[in-house]
Queue: 3 jobs
Job 1
Amino acid sequence: MQDKSDGSSLRKLNWIELLHFIRNIYISKGYEIEEIDADLVNEISDCLYRTLAGYDDLNPAKTAGHVCFWVRRLKPLHQESTSAKRMKALNEFIAIDLALLICIQRILIYNKTDLTSTKGIQFAKTTVEQILPYPIRKDLAISMRHYSHSPHGLAMIFEILFRDYINELRGRS
């Protein structure tokens, strides 16, 4: 599972597709979310490239922590101010969900399952609720909104949450 990272694989990271996937899930739940700010997405990509390129042992949890940090910090998603269903910590919730999906997607890839398949979606829903139930995700989102969290601190959270999966994947490579 250990990637010797020169940064080139980070440019191909599928996090932008996952961000759109999550946005669509929130829209299906009734949240009115504007288009994702493309300039901020490019800035996030640049920040990820700079902050992750130096890792010798890049794993999904480290990637997830950094993506979570930059999405939360730069806030590429916005809601209509007149929206009936508003979420104050929208970018924080989406950043956490995105980070979880980055880890889950890597697990599914190793198990040769597509995230968008019925089996993949069911695995993602079950895993998210088992690993980080909604009340705890809500506490983390609120904490991220009001307090400082470093990319490394968030990466450690995801390392702990997915440690069994990461160790299993390391054993396969």
Job 2
Amino acid sequence: MSNRNTIILLISLLVVIVSTSLLVRLNPKKANYQPPTFVGKSETHNTKIKAADLAFTTGKLPEALKLYKEIQDIYPNNLPLHNRIGLINLRLGKFIDAEKTYRDLVKKAPDNAHYNSSLSLTLLNLKNYSSALNFAEQAILLKPKDGLPFLVEAAVYAQREDVDKVIKSFSQIQPSLFLFEFIKRPEFQAIKNSEKFKTFMKSATVQNGTKK
């Protein structure tokens, strides 16, 4: 597996953890702000929802995406359903489609940290660095303990070769294996030879107990 695929997989896993689901009831007339999985209003709907969830959890993402879009036609105002579709597009590398979904979610629920964070990551993958930074900062304001937007923020600063701000962003989160995979992104190539950054990462490696 290439570094890029590994990074996308780890990012997707983090997003899945953030949106781990509780069982909720869908209402086709009113937006539902709770995470999926869903319970529909008919057994026919529930059968399709279960099939979509099974496809998603077993990694059959194109099939899951098709089914979720069909469900979305029935429940167009359910925001967690939009979020699931955005997540699948993100995992499939369909970043333009993911951007469209997450921009719509942020417009409808601007105070949702997860939607802002997911949009920031999507924009980072599209190399729209200024907008990625804006939504990462908004996500941090809404939920300061979420690590993902700090990683996005650090990647943008790395692309700008601002080592001090990269270190400041990384200092806000606990060192983890995810962090060490994230810095394999191309944005960090601009600062990989910085002695200050090397020293910081060496310290982070010691804290995490990871051999590099």
Job 3
Amino acid sequence: MKRLMHTGSADLTRWTSGVVWIALIATLCLAAPAVFALDLMLIHEGEEEGKMAIGGDLDVHLSNGASGAYTVRLVDESNQIVASTIIQLSQGGDAGRRLWTRTGVVGCDPGAVHDPDAYLFESFAEAEELLEERTFNVEVYQGILFPAAQSPLEEMEISLVLPDLDVQAFPADSSGCFRTVFLEGEDLYLSIEHYQSSPQLFRNFVVQARYFWTAGTPLLDVRPNGSEVITVPAGQPSLHLLWSPPPSGGGDPPPFYLFDIVLRPGVDPNPAFDPISDFFGGRPAMPGGGTLPECKTGCIPP
């Protein structure tokens, strides 16, 4: 009995030791932090990968990272910071934000500051002149503040090229300068240029802004007389008055709402969005009108 107990206790000791080691290894494995491979995706206008059209927007999308805040910055060839943003990521989740709007074109909005050295341009033409064929780097760092010596977790190069446009159109003031914000009593103009050899007709709609436009979405023009047709001359920019809105009477200062300018080649008055032919001429903010619908999961606000 003693021998059996002795033999048994020795075997039991070896067996329990093995269990302890297995349990310890399992505990360490369970306690080890999960490894996440952060993914960076750039969303922009442009037909080729890695090439962005000047005047477009640059959005960044992060996924599969550890939970926490990430600093995303855009730097030029001399490492000057052009734009930056913070993205909050849940563990293993995904999120996106706009990093650069219209490649720095600020136009003549109230309070706008023009400084080409800081990548703040008055016009699309100025941006094209100074940005064509330039290469920038998008860098992602973990945390809100990062030391100068810290290496980015992810980075990606992007080159800027001239936009391949059939038509260039944007909201403007009476001087033809690009605007995104209009004050009470100011008129909304459209600056438009097409690259055909003869004058062209375009129907325009000024409608409540939406985050998503799909085929058949109603084009409910907010102007008293509805949509209009304009004639655009060939080969040169032209300026067209779209709306002289009445005073909003909505407080001091009045509330601002977003509108979308939808353009359609030709004269077809069908008040339904056609993603094949219709395109956008800008998103001005003006007193009065409708509100922008709530952004749903996965969309990046303008």
